[in-house]
Amino acid sequence: MAQYDHYFHLTNNDVVEYVKEKQEFFSKTDNLKCTEIGDGNINFVFRVENIDTNESIVIKHAAATARVSGKPMAPTHNRIEAKALKLQGKYVPGAVPVLYYYDPVMCCIFMEDLKGYKNFRYLLCDHEVSEGFAESVTDFMSSLLIRTTDNILLPENKRVLAQEYANPEMCEITERLVFTDPFTDCHRSNLVCVENQNFVNENIYRDENLLLQAAQIKSEFQSNYQALIHGDMHTGSILVKGNSFKYLDPEFACYAPIGFDVGTVLGNMILALINLFVTRTDCEKDKNYSKWLETSISDIVRLFYEKSRKILVEESVDHMSKCKGFSESYLRTIMQDTAGYCGTEMLRRIIGFAKVRDITSISDTQKKIIAERTGILTAKYLIMHRNEFGSDGSLYLKVTREVYRSLINH
After folding, report:
1. Among 194, 278, 337, 350, which is least packed, fewest CB within 10 Å?
2. Residue 369 CA to its chain's centroid (Å)
3. Domain spanning 2-112: CATH 3.30.200.20
4. How many angstroms separate the CA atoms of 209 and 224, rounded?
5. pTM of this prediction?
6. CATH 3.40.50.300 at 118-408, yes or no
7. Is pLDDT at 226 greater than 70 in this prediction?
């Protein structure tokens, strides 16, 4: 074990020997192979498999630099992810991969290998229906988010958790990539279709009213330690197998506004809807998918509100949160926040550095132009009019449809 008493970056060749040192997983005589399976922007993910028995585990390894940008990072950041996985598994059993072990020296998370599961974003881009998603994701979010607020936790316990999940390095990434770069391009990392550059200049960078609203949303994210959020609840961080959903990669977990997680999910589902608008055919598969997707978007809003209100009413321990009308008032603000964060997530995915397949996979240039503009204008409306949004998810659909129709009829 001496060679693992100090941190170094693991490669495929290192991982097998490293895992064999962890006797509780494999023996030194097992015939193992290692495959790098990660496709994220930050960490390295390895599958280690016993060739003879097909037993396998996944090792998530944090490097000292982000794998895509090459920017220096403290590899200890995945300590937060390991803690979050353990806590999420407690609040919502079965919703996250099983955490086996965390190595604080090598900064490695040992976890369940979810073989047979598929990436939810890829299924959406293929127009595949995943029944039960709205129920599953709202169970996950309401259970974790509402139950880690001051309303359910004793204040002293909530403050301890907030300190434990202080995640400054990852929060800085969020604050830059979500709330700053898409609106200013101050780091010169934004990218859209060449044909949409002037469109972005006029509708985003030069719109002072929008910039003010975005600044206010950023300030709220920075200052409101409301609940323990996942921090990166996009469709690429969700795996699906039948009607089973697993929520991955809580490396951005921190105490922040509840609406951030809900808005991130909705923003990515709306990007899937925009992809459908520009790529759909009249085939039966697309008709069924369209109905499911629109229902899912609407249900996510409705079900999250209903489940969250039930938890607040039944489980609140704070005397003031039991006041008549408090749960409705509390959730009204969350739903308004959700619309704003939905908008910022959409803009960072269309304009910012971290692109998504829903947009990049559109091969027809004219369709991609329309898709980007639909997303940009929809996101802008959500940010500017976020106080109009509540528990009626159909409003998200209405706005997106109207924006899309106005563009194609222009």
Report:
1. 194
2. 25
3. yes
4. 22
5. 0.95
6. no
7. yes
